[in-house]
Amino acid sequence: MEHMGIEKDRLHFSWISSAEATKFIDVVTQVTESVKALGPAKKFVKAG
Amino acid sequence: MLTYAEKIRELSAQLLREDKVDMVIGFRKGSLPMSNEPCMVKNPGDADKLVWDSNCGVNLASYLTDRKERIGIIAKGCDSRNINTHIIENKIKREQLTIIGVPCTGMIDKRKVSNSVDFDIIEVIEEADKVIVKGAGSEQTFDKKEVLRKNCEVCIHPNPVVYDEMVAEKVDINQDVDRYADVREVEEMDSDDRWQYFEDLLSNCIRCYACRNACPLCYCPTCFVDESQPQWLGKSTNATDTRGFHFLRAYHCAGRCTDCGSCETVCPMGINMRAFTKKLEKDCLENFEWQAGLNTEQRPPLDSFNPSDPDAFVK
Amino acid sequence: MKGQTEMKIIKIKKEAWGQGLEKLQSEFRLFGPVADKDGFEFKELAQGQLPVMDLGNTRLSAKSTVYPQTQVMFNYTLDESKEDHHIMKEVDLNGQPQAVIGLRPCDAASFQLVKRNFDNPEYPDPFWVRPYEQSTFVGLACDNPSPTCFCTSVGGGPYSENGLDVLLSREGEVILAKVITEKGEALAKAAGWDTDADENVFDERRDAAEKKITAKINSDQLKGKNANDLFSAPIWEDIAFACLNCGTCTYSCPTCWCFDIQDEVKGTEGKRMRNWDSCMYPLFTLEGSGHNPRPVKEMRVRQRFMHKLKYYPDKYDSDVQCVGCGRCIDLCPVNIDIRDVCETMNNYKPLKSES
Hints:
The complex is a heterotrimer of chains A (48), B (315) and C (355).
Chain A (H helix, E strand, L loop, with lengths): L20 H18 L10
Chain B lengths: L1 H16 L5 E7 L6 E6 L29 E5 L1 H12 L8 E5 L8 H7 L4 E7 L2 E6 L2 E6 L6 H4 L11 E2 L14 H7 L3 H11 L8 H5 L24 H14 L9 H5 L7 H15 L27
Parallel strand pairs in B: 1-3, 3-4, 4-8
Antiparallel strand pairs in B: 1-2, 5-6, 6-7
Chain C lengths: L7 E5 L1 H11 L4 E8 L2 E6 L25 E8 L11 E2 L7 E6 L1 H14 L7 H8 L1 E6 L25 E6 L2 E6 L2 H10 L10 H10 L15 H5 L4 H5 L7 H5 L6 E8 L2 E8 L20 H20 L10 H5 L6 H10 L8
Parallel strand pairs in C: 2-6, 6-7, 7-8
Antiparallel strand pairs in C: 1-9, 2-3, 4-5, 4-11, 8-9, 10-11
């Protein structure tokens, strides 16, 4: 996805166990922040 | 080259005569310069039709899918790797096949030749390492290496990796070639430039699916792009749908693609189709030391798990 | 045709050509061949853009100028607060008149063949007929036909006027225009092209160009053959073996007209469109029940050739559904050659007639 030009910070992979609540919060916070910083996606959005 | 053809005919006729195979899949002479037509030969007497020259670029493994007969097949390096892939994926059985291996000296890029001359081509003759292109009253000679298909220029497996017969001694392999210069060029771009690069690449795609249909890996009974329940992709010439098709198709070829160049050769619009699959091929090599179709023993990276598989992308 | 052509011939100098086209753009949408990567295709000309007139034929045919690959037919809304929700509204087809500049006589003739299908008296198809009626076709004669051109054996020719409103012939920088129809006359007038040429060189050039065509097909025996005999002839396995069912032949063919209707909805707004389809694809004939009457490629290849060379001529009592542009021959990745297939069909003799 990155290779075709989707911004790097829009894609995240993480492995979180059901026991890792803190990690889950951290990752989700980080994902939201980085995606918010990028703003709305313009690529791969089908026009009308 | 001529001796290749003679040997192919001789071996094919023998296989048919001795009833070791029901048919031989090879090439017959085409009606246009730089074109040969894949064909099957069922009678020993017809083996004379078989030819071999630098216009046998179509990957013959595509013609094996789900066949039940005993088949003799002419295979250059990439064809043989796709035959292995077909065997791994249960699309043909090794026992059905008698593989006539052809050490490959590279295939000619028809489009490159046509674009390099300013006349209508009437005849193309190969002599040793030269390609002589003739038109009405015009003639131009190229070194064969100038007019090779791009995948042949960087090929490191010209010799068949699996065969029962060989038509000649194996050819020397150029291991020094830089296989991924074009991929690195894209990797070095920022995300907007990459996006634009693929946007330009696909600007004239007509969604005919020639790339998919020529690909020896694309044998799904129903391709995802043809599904209607659910419909994964729109079917118009919309740029987003077109891009979706090309990237999803490429992912489906990850760890399976042998860079045989069929997709690129058949594209009626001349799109550099390998730009999609080569990145994945490079990643497979770098991350899993994997090159598709070299043998039938090793499982492909995408259907096996190894604790040492790289996982730096998982945070 | 010789002798009876009292048609008007106009001489257009280089400057007048560009100026004339620019003038036309206030009235017409202009389409013409323009460079596209390593080939060139028919596209709408931008203001002041000149069509490429000095190279061979376009890679794809001119059919897209009347029949685009993707064509919206209806719009609708699913928003129930709107009065006209769930009602299909036809797109406005009364657009600006258009002119297709520089199409070859083969492509011009193709519209006449396709017309029988789309403009039949019973069910005229407005989505094809209206753009067609709004089009003026300004053809460019072929002085250098390619080695795979065989228009002369399917009723056409490099100077054929069939389906054209104006026929152009280049002479260095100067263009000679033969005005064929009233539509053509109106276009020439709108462009301000009015200098009469001193001589008629069209017949002479036509003869010279026709002599350059070397490729041909023979379809003379096809009419007399029984369609069922040909259908069940043991020739198709060999013909179809190499075929990848890639559809390149049908997409590049000026006379292939099949399409597939699709709906696309985004939010509450929907559109119904048609996209080119191809008899080469298994999906083309797949029925809702799951049954597919043409499940294997042999049947699909047979359908393409039988339709072009047998069913069409039989149905319309005409020549074959092919204009001899040679595109399918040039572009086929596995070298399936309609000339050879036609020859095989033409020469086929059933061992015992089933009829």
